[in-house]
Probable tRNA sulfurtransferase (Eubacterium callanderi), 385 residues
Amino acid sequence: MKHVILVRYGEISLKGLNRNYFIDLLVKNIRNTLKRFESVKVQKIQGRIIVDLSEEDLEGALEAVTKVFGIVSVSPAIVVESDIDVIEKATLEQAKATDFKTFRITAKRGDKRFPIQSPELGRRLGAVVLRNIPDIKVDMHTPDMNLWVEVREETYIYHKFIQCNGGLPVGCSGKTALLLSGGIDSPVAGYMMAKRGVELIGVYFHSFPFTSDRAKDKVIDLAKIVSGYCGKVTLYVVPFTEIQTKIVEVCPERQTTIIIRRYMMRIAQEIARRNGAMSLTTGESLGQVASQTQEGLGATNAVVDLPVFRPLIGMDKQEIVAIAERIGTFETSILPYEDCCTIFVPKHPETKPKLEAVVKSERPMEEIAGPMIEKAIEDAEIIRV
Ligand code: ATP
Ligand code: MG
């Protein structure tokens, strides 16, 4: 008896994409996610992916594989020889190992060389289970346990269907530069882009000593959690203290927030370009704070030409928190280490900044910013998560 995980991917998500390319990429991502498990072998067979592994690796591998984008559901299964005696014995063993009062057998004969047709096989296996386990009943419609028996070259027996995250395999939609802060929103924004198949280049602006190294570690931890879903994140930790302090020194206080954000965008775009990323992504949500009004977003957008994706734009904080909790970033995000924006927040930030006014306020930075930006990018620490 062998153990496997059956992996199902959505047919709908294949539309418009090259099917084989999609599946090969998914196989590659699954292999990559499971590479720490020595027993694992991943292969594709007729419409699905099979992960072969030892019983010891099953639990850990199952937890990891359910996170991989592009997978709709998985089932842990046992695999036995396609021989009726062997199948009967294994079916009974599986039933005995499960707690249920009502059950059904769903038999599927995929290999026409097998002599018993599906309905007959179902009845026969059902009878074996009924005969050998006391106090149980057949229920074809809402059984406690639906035991699937799929006869192919080998026979797969399973009863658990674990729903996964769906989406597209990471790598099929190019790269984005994700402005990743230590907050609740941006890791969720990154998760959502990765779910659509985008590889993440994280960009974190670090203002040491205003933000401690613990704040930086927190961002690295968040990138690690997100990488559990998307495989890898390349994280740029950009030293931002000099630029930020300079802005506060030379620009009008009411507009410093927006100007700081404009410099973040400029630098992120440069990092995106150098990494072949086609867009920027932020965790902004309309109206959440003063800089996230339409005027504010417009003023931050104006400095870049790459498209800026804001997957949380129409979400309430509560909805974002619910996703953060589900994907496991929330606990880390609410750790109390300040990020640079909270330190440099003006007392009365402009909520409706006019672009011309911002450009004017920013003028003192113009002559001096170029070399500072270049230096910040050059000195950025690159962490492969
Ligand atoms: P988050 O939005 O992640 O919860 P936040 O609410 O503290 O963090 P905001 O001030 O709302 O951050 O900033 C909006 C967006 O700007 C963030 O979602 C993030 O994409 C980006 N951002 C803010 N600060 C930083 C930073 N220090 N480094 C990188 N990106 C940042
Ligand atoms: Mg926010």
About this structure: The longest strand covers residues 71-81. Residues 183, 185, 283, 288 surround magnesium ion (ligand 2) (CB under 6 Å). The radius of gyration is 27 Å.
